[in-house]
């Protein structure tokens, strides 16, 4: 990797130029990142639309998912297009991309913590109010902005080694939280198997949701580990193949459009929202067609009705005469 290689999509995609790659390689990577960008925007916009339209999706535990969706959407809608079509990035562009990426993995870690709490203390979890989620989300964004500011200061004013050291430490801590929560939930599931059938049936109601959200966290973990390894090597001054590095970056950002697919396949509320949206659209089309058919029949029958009315009036007039 050259000096222009960085831990974020910003500096990664900024290398998509012919002075680093051959023309064929640049076209291939730009096409790949463009396709991923379109998929990210489509999937996450659909998720936000379902959350806004379908009221049954607006549950407390989905607020963390929606915040991660917003971060993923910004990566696909803003960060990737900027660095695909404008290779030379500015400080503002780099900071914006760092904020989005850090927010994505931070909320993945929060989802893991929330599911661990819901699994280990289900009674206390049910008493959580929406205000508690608002406080946690506010603190999460504060941490994201603070860590991104520190990264930016290290990058501009300190050194590249300090920048990578802080980034690797911060990101590794979040991935460790995801791993620890996953292990804790797995152990709790093992204990549930030894419970009585009545208690186990109660626990099974939220078990599928927990497995789904943990799958999302694990996918985030798998997408970040290769990038952490590559940036650790970069901090140690070890050179790596640039195509291999961009493959890890592509894997990292691809997680942003895999999440909506997991929502649609695994979460029943989202499947119901999709069917509700689709059935609502089809019923609207059927109503329009039905109304159009009625109006057409009315227009066809109108002359005959008018002729019958005229004939009746003439008969009445003839009787009077």
Mean pLDDT: 75
**Count of alpha and pi helical runs:** 10
Task: Give the CATH class of the largest domain.
Answer: Mainly Alpha
How many beta-strand elements?
A: 0
Characteristics:
single chain; 321 residues; Rhopdopsin 7-helix transmembrane proteins; 2 domains; globular; disordered N terminus; disordered C terminus
Describe this structure in words.
By secondary structure, the chain is mainly α. It contains ten helices and no strands. The chain has helices spanning 9-13, 23-53, 62-85, 91-120, 122-126, 130-158, 160-192, 197-235, 242-266, 268-320. The protein has two domains: 9-266, Rhopdopsin 7-helix transmembrane proteins (Up-down Bundle); 269-321.
State the gist of this model.
This protein is an all-alpha fold. Helices cover 85% and strands 0% of the residues.
Write the layout of secondary structure elements.
Blueprint (H helix, E strand, L loop, with lengths): L8 H5 L9 H31 L8 H24 L5 H30 L1 H5 L3 H29 L1 H33 L4 H39 L6 H25 L1 H53 L1
